[in-house]
């Protein structure tokens, strides 16, 4: 029998406030320990290019590679060679993800309008080149390829490069379905540096998205400014909201679905009584017994699992908004009502018939979500992450004259005489016209 103990804390106690404080700080990644090495890797690759990348692949991945970038990566053959069940699932997932993001794209149109003699507008253009990072360590993630590359493809990105070490058939098949142009056969900080700076064989990109380990996160932070990034992703997390009518078996299953990702994952329960916590704590060991990734899931619960007990249903929503979790699963009665009160979450899974796994694989929205409390201000990866916007402004001379007094008054209030004169010079007769 498992030794897992799901720690609990009841509202109004010091344990509760302490648990909330620790959760609030969960997104504070200490990258200082790895940054010196990562900075060295970035600088070396920037100077030596391909040769340095290959050296680091051998050093950190234990592989000798002769070629870094593959445009002919055998995607169709990989798809055809998969088992029929996996092939059908990938195709169905790609179709659903594409349909969802095509709807999302409809809200990103350029626009123009006129106010008197002024034309104003916003022009939306896709990024030229995007790099997508997919880890290749403890698991393979073809689903993450679909969830990252398809929004970029729908946005109209011209070239999508996937970085993943020694990608298998499932990943290559997903690349084919998602419109990935090329695969960079590298992982870790060396992959981020290659995408950001480019080498002899790998063109640089404009933006890098996708989760990774501390080295990847540190590298993304250091190259930000050279390129854009999506976020500094942390460990996976789920917050399950439950009442006395919730099924502890399903609650335990949802907690374990995230705990099995990594020992650093956060499986969190927010409910209304310690009795319900005990029912879930009793259920967890039974499900862990047959879980292939048992040791990983068990460690995640021991290190980061916690059950918070609040006084009423309204507090479920209020505390959930404080935690701002990556995944929020709503298992209570009338789940739609409570879900409407949740403002800060990466993704909300409404009702006990909606497992988080559906969102990970097939539902449609990207499963690349803000972690560590970043849902307070962040958003799921989407089509909007792969476009740039330009403002469009065009004045007639008459309208400039009508607004000149306001423009020049503000310019001179800021001490910028040149700005004011740039307006007035357009309105005054040219000295040459007076000759």
Overall strand count? 15
Question: How much strand content do the residues show?
Answer: 15-25%
Kindly provide the radius of gyration, computed on alpha-carbon positions and rounded to a whole number of angstroms.
26 Å
- Overall outline: globular
The parts where pLDDT drops under 50 for at least 5 residues are none
| Biggest sheet character | 6 strands, parallel
Average pLDDT number: 94
The count of helical stretches stands at 17
Distance between the termini: 100 Å
Secondary structure blueprint with pairings:
Blueprint: E1 7-10, H1 14-24, H2 35-48, H3 50-61, E2 69-70, H4 75-81, H5 84-105, E3 111-115, E4 118-126, E5 129-133, H6 142-155, E6 159-163, H7 169-178, E7 182-184, H8 188-197, E8 207-209, H9 214-223, E9 228-229, E10 237-241, H10 248-259, E11 266-271, H11 274-288, H12 294-304, E12 306-309, H13 313-323, E13 327-330, H14 335-340, E14 347-350, H15 356-361, E15 387-395, H16 397-413, H17 417-427
Parallel strand pairs: 1-12, 5-6, 5-8, 6-7, 8-9, 10-11, 10-13, 11-12, 13-14
Antiparallel strand pairs: 2-7, 3-4, 4-15
Helix pairs in contact: 2-3, 2-8, 2-9, 3-8, 4-7, 5-6, 5-7, 6-7, 8-9, 10-11, 16-17
């Amino acid at each position: 029998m498992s030794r897992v103990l799901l720690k609990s804390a009841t509202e109004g106690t010091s344990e509760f406030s302490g648990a909330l404080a620790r959760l609030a700080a969960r997104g504070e990644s200490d990258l200082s320990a790895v940054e010196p090495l990562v900075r060295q890797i970035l600088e070396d690759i920037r100077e030596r290019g391909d040769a340095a990348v290959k050296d680091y692949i051998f050093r950190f991945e234990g592989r000798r590679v002769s070629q870094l970038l593959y445009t002919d990566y055998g995607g169709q053959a990989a798809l055809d060679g998969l088992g029929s069940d996996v092939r059908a699932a990938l195709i169905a997932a790609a179709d659903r993800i594409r349909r969802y993001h095509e709807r999302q794209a409809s809200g990103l149109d350029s626009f123009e309008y006129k106010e008197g003699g002024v034309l104003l507008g916003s022009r939306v253009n896709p990024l030229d080149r995007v790099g997508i990072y997919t880890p290749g360590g403890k698991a393979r993630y073809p689903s993450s390829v679909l969830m990252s590359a398809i929004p970029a493809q729908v946005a109209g990105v011209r070239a999508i490069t996937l970085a993943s070490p020694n990608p298998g058939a499932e990943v290559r098949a997903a690349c084919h379905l998602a419109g990935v142009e090329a695969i960079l056969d590298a992982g870790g900080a060396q992959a981020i540096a290659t995408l950001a700076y480019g080498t002899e064989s790998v063109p640089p990109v404009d933006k890098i998205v996708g989760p990774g380990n501390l080295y990847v996160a540190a590298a993304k932070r250091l190259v930000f400014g050279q390129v854009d990034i999506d976020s500094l992703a942390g460990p996976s997390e789920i917050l399950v909201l439950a009442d006395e009518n919730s099924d502890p078996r399903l609650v335990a299953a949802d907690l374990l679905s995230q705990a099995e990702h990594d020992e650093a994952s956060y499986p969190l329960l927010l409910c209304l009584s310690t009795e319900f916590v005990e029912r879930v704590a009793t259920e967890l060991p039974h499900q862990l017994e047959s879980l292939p990734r048992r040791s990983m899931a068990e460690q995640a619960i021991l290190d980061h699992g916690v059950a918070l007990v609040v006084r009423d249903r309204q507090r479920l929503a209020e505390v959930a908004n404080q935690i701002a979790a990556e995944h929020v699963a709503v298992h209570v009665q009338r789940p739609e009502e409570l879900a409407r009160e949740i403002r800060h979450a990466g993704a909300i899974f409404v009702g006990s018939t909606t497992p988080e796994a559906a969102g990970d694989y097939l539902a449609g929205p990207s499963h690349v979500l803000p972690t560590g409390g970043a849902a307070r201000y962040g958003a799921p990866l989407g089509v909007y992450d792969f476009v740039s916007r330009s403002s469009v402004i065009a004045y007639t001379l008459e309208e400039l004259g009508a607004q000149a007094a306001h423009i020049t008054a503000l310019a001179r209030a800021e001490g910028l005489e040149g700005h004011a004169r740039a307006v007035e010079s357009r309105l005054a007769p040219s000295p040459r016209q007076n000759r």
